[in-house]
Amino acid sequence: DAGVHGFSVTLKTAGTESITVSDTLLPVAGSAAIAVQHAPASGFQLAALPATAEAGQPLSLAISARDAFGNLATSYAGSAALTSADPTDILPAAGGFTAGVRVVSLAFVKAGTHVATVAEVGGGIAAVDTTSVAVGAAPPFRIDVSAAGASTIAGTAGAITVKLLDRHGNT
Fold this sequence. Notes:
By secondary structure, the chain is mainly beta. 0% of the residues lie in helices and 43% in strands. The strands form five sheets. The protein has a four-stranded antiparallel beta sheet with strand order 7-6-10-11, with no helix packed on it.
């Protein structure tokens, strides 16, 4: 072998990595620095949304394109779209990433539990759901009063319904 050996190494963390080799019998060692680039993007990582929010409250969501080893895929050139099961949700248009990251604003309007789904436009990366958000009504905005009938007879009790609503129609 004339003192030369070849080895195979697999580096998984993007950035500058150092490989050090030493002899177990002699006090000699050597090292080399290697610049490791991220692999192609294979998934999205989402920052957690708050557990609770007020109806209509803007929420910030950071979406990161990641490779199979969890590295930020800074050269990712795809785009992502957000969808949800509730047509009243306020979601951003599909858009691209800057250095592997996209930050968007979204809002859930109806009271209840909400989740949005992030999917790659073109579908090469699996869709990912946000954390769920328990949405409560916004502050009261109006009072709706309705009578059981359009008319009544003097001295006769009639039923009315009173609803306290927020600006989105939540009670």
